[in-house]
Give the backbone structure.
Amino acid sequence: MARYTEEELKEKVHNGFIVEYPDEMTEGYRKALIVQLMVQADTELVSAPAYFGAAKDAPSTNTMVSATAIIQDELAHANIAYRLLEDLGLDKEQLVYGRQPHEFKHPYGFDHPLENWAELVVANGLYDRAGITLLGDVFKNTSYGPLKRALVKVDQEETFHLRHGEMWMKRLANAGGEAREQIQRAVDWMFPMAVEWFGLPDDMKRHSGQLDYKLKGMTNDELRQTWMQSTVPLCEGLGIDVPAHWSEDEQKYVLDFAFPCQYDEDEKRWLFGEGQISWEAVFERWKRRGPANKQFIEAIQDGRGFRAQLAAA
């Protein structure tokens, strides 16, 4: 029998109680925590093959080392989250090797290949910033003790990834010419992708329990706004156009395009001119997954065969 009712646990965590062990959870708390950890783990894992494809385009040995260090960090972060899921009764081997590609729960943007160094550093600058925005909120507010402690290391390393992206975005933007054009093209498709990453607007948000159980502290719109508060000034400071601006009337950043909108994954281009689409259409696109989903998951799962060969040798 659970120690607390759902309502008792919700009240306790909002009064500062930290959950440490599964027997302190209610079923609702456990389910909400699993969903959160699954997205965190899958996102970290699938970022690795996406980053690896572009790391091979690194302009020097030193930058190749930096890029591969970031990939190693992402895999370690995934392992931390899967390890926490094991504490909740899930099987890490099954989660990594036993699922079909479309069953992973990472953002749609990581199903797209990064095709050059500029796309990699913009991913560090925009996607890793989205990750820090989300995980920074979790670290500050979560009621789950083991995750809070694990995120001390994760947040420090994600900050390095972000600084790497910012530094190289500035360097390539200042170089001008084709380098600057590559940064602009990468921002053109990744900026709306990251905006979409934060999910449904608050007035449409489905009940997830993560706020009720204090697994995080900010709503989707608050997180999206936090991300834009640093991303838009960064890009504007580099002379890179973004489809968003600060509204004095609303005292917040607002988007200059219909949101959400249609995306052409073959051309890596958002079809702003076609107007707003429904979130149901967005969910259908997410469920179909992006163009490199199968390739990236298979690249990860191929490692199991290699390990089996080593064990049999």
